[in-house]
Amino acid sequence: MAVVAVELVRPEPDWAAALARALERPAGVPERRQRPEERGDSTADGSGPRRRRIADELLWLRDVIEDPGSHGFQHDSGAAQIWFPIGETDSPETLDRLEKLRLRGILDAAGFLLHDESLEGIDLE
Fold first, then answer.
1. Most buried by CB count within 10 Å: which residue of 23, 59, 80, 115?
2. For residue 81, what are the β-bridge partners?
3. Residue 82 buriedness (CB in 10 A; 0-12 / 13-18 / 19+)
4. For residue 71, with 0-12 CB atoms within 10 Å meaning exposed, 13-18 middle and 19 or more buried, which class applies?
5. Helix axis angle, 54-66 relative to 15-23, nearest 10°?
6. What angle (nearest 5°) sits at the alpha carbon of residue 67, between those of residues 101 and 86?
7. Half-sphere exposure of 103 (CA within 13 A, CB side)
8. Are strands 5-8 and 81-85 parallel, antiparallel or unpaired?
9. pTM
10. pLDDT tens digit string along 102-125?
């Protein structure tokens, strides 16, 4: 059973609104004027882990919606349009990525709801 599902609640995704929301700086976060290497976020040779930007997460979501099979998701378009992870993608990491998009208001701007607390009322099979 999937740990999370994304439901489209509009006729089609509004990617422009989602991108506009992603480009807004969250409340209380100062503007950044330095590159990550200058702040010490990665190692000198660039081999350290790169922190994902919210725009990267939005691109990942769009890829999932447009080609779910290639990204480990399944699409069901019965009474509602729902995408949910399958196989190895059905993991806490996927939930974290989608929650990050929800917390920033990007899922809402694009026209999606995130179902993650209880999927018992949704028939995913």
1. 115
2. 8, 77
3. buried
4. middle
5. 170
6. 75
7. 11
8. antiparallel
9. 0.76
10. 999 999 999 999 998 655 555 555
